[in-house]
Each structure stands twice: as C-alpha cells, then as structure tokens.
Amino acid sequence: MRYLMMSKPSDTAAPDENLHVAMGKFIEELTAAGILLATGGLEPGGVRITSSGDEITVTDGPFAEAKEAVVGFALVEVRSREEAIELTRRFRRIVGDGESVIQQVFGP
C-alpha cells in the first residue's frame, strides 16, 4: 500500500543540526528498507487552476490560508495504514510540534 505523508507549516524555530542529523538517519533507514519512494519540499505559493464549464481560471499563490498548505511530502510503500501512521508518528517526534496528513495513494 502506498501512502502520501504530507507536512503542514509550523511556527517552530528553524531546524538545527541535530534535526538534520536525525532526519538524515530516518531517511536513510526508510530508503534502505525500500519504504521511502520519494520525498521533497513544496514551494509556498503554487498556482490554483479551477474549471467551471468551459471556463478555466488560473490564480497565482500564495493563498489566504497558507497555514493549511502542504510544505513537504514523502511517498512511502508500507503493508498497512497502521504502519503509515507509525512512520508519521516517528517523523513528528523528530521534527517536533506541527501537523501532518496521510492519505492512501490508489492506482498502479
């Protein structure tokens, strides 16, 4: 089962060297186990594209609710939803206060 683990921005202090080291170890462990498929950060603004009938509207960000935006992600392959939750718990313990969302990815 594949899950997309997403992180939202937080008001915590800038990452220090200990955080970088801990995250490096976590990423190495998941990569070596074949769990981590992709990871990355996302630009803060983005572009919103909406459609209504034949009308397509393109709006540049940032948007009013930036605190709701996703700032980073990891795509993982695990055996169960519970395993995805546990990986996200481990991630939150490393990075500290904040919010993450996980969603199962369907398809090939």
TrEMBL record:
Pfam family name, one: YCII
Domain YCII-related, residue spans: 1-91
Alphabetical list of Gene3D superfamilies matching this protein: Dimeric alpha+beta barrel
SUPFAM superfamilies registered for this protein in UniProt: Dimeric alpha+beta barrel (SSF54909)
Family named by the database record: Belongs to the YciI family.
PANTHER family membership: BLL7171 PROTEIN-RELATED (PTHR35174)
Protein's name in the database: YciI family protein
